[in-house]
């Protein structure tokens, strides 16, 4: 099979460069951690408090990841398989909660129900922010997968739920595990939600080392713990993926697959979908409107809102295009040329995702101030930092889509004399388009809400929606936060809508 | 064949990478030599834009010196400065609190300020090495609701009395509250500080998100007493009128640690090539105009130029704050650990 052919150099070279770049934060961390001496590292890490906080982080990670998988698969199923329509509206509504920064979502909840703070609040907010990480790749995978398998299973006497459990879930497994890995890494790295909810986890001590300890090397030492956790999670995910392989040989025939729905099933589905949107996106949107209207003397400066939208949009577009381009070679290698080497390449892009944004930002500062001085505090370095943060999102959604697409067309292309690059460009990539688009959507949404790297690396005076929200929320001026929060959510609709349209076009060939 | 081609391509790639590195190297060299010119003054500001942007633009209008201001959290800016080291583009560091200034000073990044600047500020409110000066002060107070409180506590130990059980509001994540706890640790020692915090926790204080929320809760009688900074009360009076506000401030005036004065301050980076302009900005912040700005806009304590505080405030001498070297407030990380241990920070 194709895995035996050598990977084309045109793929390997850019993948190597991307992998080296994404290891910059790791290099910085070890460099900084060990300048304070090995004894200091051991002393810092082996404290009972460190262990206790790691356990709390793991508890939050496991619960949020489990809940996100359940909700994300449900939402994907509603979009791709249930009779609920219109599809575009559903995807947008389900994706909105991803567009809301975790600190803002958490503040929306805690200012409404103060008693929710603590574990429960952090769990709820992070689950709503994270489930689209599972949903988007699973939709892509359900779109690509052969719907006839489900029909066949039904005709062989399986119950609808049995079909869902064995066939639909089975085909989506790589997308689910990939999404779950992203959720787990995100939860480990998050500080916004746990800070607003006053639930103390491991990122507290890392942020504390910067904000309260003014000590970057202590933060670096502590961050190595998250690197280790990311490494273990990535290995587990790779193991799960390789034991449950997804293959698709024939192309199948795409047809509408509306399974017959009884009235109770319809009501349950609609209730679930409405509840999901109301709690995930509805609560923050309602709070943002409430803040905006709170003080009638408050004059919204629409010109500032609009220019911030333009800046966020510009940075988001460039970041998502660059992220997709950088991720594509890695995803292709990982899906089509499987082996130890491609696994290492892919894994290297993931580890940095468990690091809080400020750690990535400081590591880019460390690199930029010494070697890329002319670019320091200029747009390219900010884009580079964002690309490193979002690369795993793009790789994961692309890889699962590529793995799901049929290989037989590639064999046909090869047998007709097309070279490996030609086959990738003309066959593999077009087939994986839904996954590539999902990657772009995820990067764009994440870029618009990104704060810690933007604050430290932006060109002086550049104001994005996220920095505006930070500026006003830091002085408790929520009347001014409201319009920017609403603009951020509104801006999220654009990439999701455009990409959803493109996705369907790409599939309906 | 194939392998040969691959090798050739690797060579090309390496050559390309070297070219890029060379270009980057050259351009960084040339830009460094150009940096001695008088470009805009770069300020890293931990004080918020809403608070200080107007004052900065007054400075530019008067002196013609353009400012490039980078706003972020004071502590993150300190970490940024420490990571940047000598290569930092910053000329001036304006911090919300003394602790972050102390950390940057310890990293050897702040220059010694000339005596015509340091002489403007009382020695209690500047670094012992003259590398930063305070620009304004904020006193810790007990804001109370006179309809619910007949006898106000005189010291922080008085509020441990069971009569205050469940009636005290505080903001656990607020930096000024944490600075107070740091001062408590510095002045009374770790053991006594922990003792006080444990007793405070046993009195079931009510946590709020921010100081403003504590003040509002006191004003409507949700709690009787709140531990906040002095100016929150005056902000509310300025925004809503004196009639809307029943709450009053009580000052701990007998040298009690509860009456700590926190400061915001400023320092000039050792690596700055724009020292003259930087010193000019520091002087401007300490001038009558700068000090009146803080006194009237934020109701903070002016600390220089003989500017009197906002009329309703007691003077610094009347306040009689506890004696403490403000640079010692930098052990904030240990404070947070102690607060977490005593159950006052987290859930």
Please outline the helices and strands.
The complex is a heterodimer of chains A (509) and B (347).
Chain A: H1 9-22, H2 24-35, H3 38-45, H4 48-80, H5 87-95, H6 102-112, H7 119-144, H8 147-155, H9 160-189, H10 192-196, H11 202-211, H12 216-243, H13 263-294, H14 302-336, H15 340-351, H16 357-371, H17 379-404, H18 408-415, H19 420-431, H20 433-449, H21 452-457, H22 465-473, H23 478-507
Helix pairs in contact in A: 1-14, 1-15, 2-12, 2-16, 4-5, 4-7, 4-9, 5-23, 6-7, 6-13, 7-9, 7-17, 7-20, 8-9, 9-12, 9-17, 11-12, 12-15, 13-23, 14-15, 14-17, 14-20, 14-23, 16-17, 17-20, 18-19, 20-23, 22-23
Chain B: H1 2-34, E1 41-45, H2 49-63, E2 67-71, H3 74-84, E3 92-95, H4 98-106, H5 115-118, E4 133-144, E5 168-170, H6 175-188, H7 190-202, E6 206-207, H8 211-219, E7 225-229, H9 231-240, E8 248-251, E9 261-268, H10 275-286, H11 288-298, E10 301-302, H12 316-319, H13 332-341
Parallel strand pairs in B: 1-2, 1-3, 5-6, 5-7
Antiparallel strand pairs in B: 3-9, 4-7, 4-8, 4-9, 4-10
Helix pairs in contact in B: 3-4, 6-7, 6-13
Polypeptide structure, described:
The complex is a heterodimer of chains A (about 500) and B (about 350). By secondary structure, chain A is an all-alpha fold. Chain A contains 23 helices and no strands. Chain A has helices at about 10-20, 25-35, 40-45, 50-80, 85-95, 100-110, 120-145, 145-155, 160-190, 190-195, 200-210, 215-245, 265-295, 300-335, 340-350, 355-370, 380-405, 410-415, 420-430, 435-450, 450-455, 465-475, 480-505. Chain B has helices at about 1-35, 50-65, 75-85, 100-105, 115-120, 175-190, 190-200, 210-220, 230-240, 275-285, 290-300, 315-320, 330-340, and strands at about 40-45, 65-70, 90-95, 135-145, 170, 205, 225-230, 250, 260-270, 300. In chain B, strands 1, 2, 3, 4, 5, 6, 7, 8, 9 and 10 form a ten-stranded mixed β-sheet that branches. Chains A and B meet through α6, α11, α12, α16 and α21 of A and α1, α2, β2, α3 and α4 of B.
């Amino acid at each position: 099979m194709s895995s035996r052919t050598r990977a084309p150099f045109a793929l390997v070279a850019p993948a190597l460069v991307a992998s080296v770049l994404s290891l910059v934060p790791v290099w910085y961390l070890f460099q900084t951690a060990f300048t304070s001496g090995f004894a200091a590292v051991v002393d810092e890490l082996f404290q009972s408090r460190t262990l206790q906080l790691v356990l709390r982080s793991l508890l939050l990670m496991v619960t949020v990841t489990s809940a996100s998988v359940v909700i994300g698969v449900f939402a994907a199923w509603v979009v791709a398989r249930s009779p609920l329509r219109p599809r575009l509206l559903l995807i947008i509504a389900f994706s909105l909660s991803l567009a809301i920064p975790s600190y803002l979502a958490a503040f929306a909840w805690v200012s409404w129900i103060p008693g929710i703070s603590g574990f429960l609040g952090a769990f709820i907010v992070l689950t709503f922010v994270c489930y689209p990480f599972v949903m988007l790749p699973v939709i892509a995978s359900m779109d690509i997968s052969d719907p006839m398998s489900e029909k066949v299973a039904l005709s062989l006497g399986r119950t609808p739920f049995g079909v869902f459990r064995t066939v639909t879930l089975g085909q989506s497994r790589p997308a689910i595990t990939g999404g779950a890995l992203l959720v787990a890494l995100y939860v480990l790295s998050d500080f916004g939600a746990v800070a607003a909810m006053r639930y103390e986890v491991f990122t507290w001590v890392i942020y504390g080392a910067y904000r309260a300890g003014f000590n970057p090397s202590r933060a670096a030492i502590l961050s190595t713990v998250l690197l280790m956790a990311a490494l273990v999670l990535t290995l587990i995910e790779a193991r799960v993926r390789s034991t449950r392989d997804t293959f698709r040989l024939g192309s199948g025939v795409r047809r509408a697959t509306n399974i017959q729905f009884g009235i109770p099933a319809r009501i349950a589905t609609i209730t679930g979908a409405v509840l999901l949107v109301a709690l995930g996106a509805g609560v923050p949107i309602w709070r943002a409107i409430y803040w905006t209207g709170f003080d009638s003397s408050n004059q919204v400066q629409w010109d500032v809102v609009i220019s911030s939208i333009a800046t966020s949009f510009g940075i988001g577009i460039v970041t998502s295009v660059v992220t997709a381009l950088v991720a594509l070679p890695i995803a292709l290698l990982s899906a089509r040329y499987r082996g130890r080497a491609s696994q290492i390449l892919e894994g290297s892009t993931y580890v940095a995702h468990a690091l809080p944004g400020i750690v990535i930002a400081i590591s880019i500062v460390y690199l930029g101030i010494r070697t890329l001085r002319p670019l320091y505090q200029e747009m390219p370095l900010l884009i580079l930092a964002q690309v490193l943060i979002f690369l795993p999102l793009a790789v994961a959604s692309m890889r699962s889509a590529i793995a799901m697409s049929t290989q037989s067309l590639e064999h046909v292309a090869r047998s007709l004399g097309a070279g490996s690059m030609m086959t990738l460009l003309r066959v593999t990539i077009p087939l994986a388009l839904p996954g590539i688009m999902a990657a772009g959507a995820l990067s764009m949404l994440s870029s618009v809400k990104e704060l810690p790297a933007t604050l430290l690396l932006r060109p002086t005076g550049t104001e994005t929606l996220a920095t505006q929200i930070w500026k006003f929320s830091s002085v408790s001026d929520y009347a001014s936060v409201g319009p920017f929060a609403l603009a951020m959510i509104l801006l999220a609709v654009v990439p999701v809508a455009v990409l959803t349209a493109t996705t369907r076009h790409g599939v309906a060939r | 064949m194939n392998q040969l081609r691959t090798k050739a391509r690797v060579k090309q790639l390496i050559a390309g990478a070297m070219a890029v590195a060379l270009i980057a190297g050259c351009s960084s060299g040339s830009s460094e030599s150009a940096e001695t010119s008088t470009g805009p003054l770069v300020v890293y500001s931990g004080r918020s834009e809403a608070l200080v942007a107007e004052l900065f633009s007054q400075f530019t209008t008067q002196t013609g010196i353009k400012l490039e201001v980078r706003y972020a959290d004071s502590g993150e800016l300190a970490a940024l400065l420490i990571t940047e080291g000598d290569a930092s583009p910053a000329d001036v560091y304006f911090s919300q609190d003394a602790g972050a200034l102390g950390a940057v000073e310890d990293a050897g990044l702040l220059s010694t300020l000339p005596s015509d600047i340091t002489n403007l500020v009382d020695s209690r409110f500047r670094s012992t090495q003259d590398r930063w000066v305070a620009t304004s002060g904020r006193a810790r107070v007990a804001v109370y609701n006179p309809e619910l409180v007949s006898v106000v506590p005189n010291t922080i130990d008085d509020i441990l009395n069971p009569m205050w059980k469940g009636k005290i509001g505080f903001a656990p994540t607020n930096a000024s509250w944490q600075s107070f706890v740091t001062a408590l640790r510095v002045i009374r020692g770790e053991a006594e500080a922990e003792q006080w915090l444990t007793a405070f926790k046993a009195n079931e204080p009510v946590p709020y998100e921010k100081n403003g929320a504590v003040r509002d809760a006191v004003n409507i009688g949700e709690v009787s007493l709140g531990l906040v900074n002095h100016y929150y009360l005056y902000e509310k009076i300025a925004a809503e009128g004196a009639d809307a506000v029943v709450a009053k401030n009580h000052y701990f005036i007998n040298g009690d640690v509860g009456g700590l004065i926190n400061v915001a301050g400023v320092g000039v980076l050792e690596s700055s090539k724009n020292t003259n302009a930087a010193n000019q900005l520091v002087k401007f912040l300490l001038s009558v105009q700068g000090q009146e700005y803080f006194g009237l806009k934020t109701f903070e304590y002016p600390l220089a130029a003989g500017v009197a505080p906002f009329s309703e405030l007691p003077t610094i001498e009347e306040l009689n704050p506890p004696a403490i070297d403000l640079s010692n407030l930098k052990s904030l990380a240990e404070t947070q650990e102690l607060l977490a241990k005593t159950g006052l920070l987290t859930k």
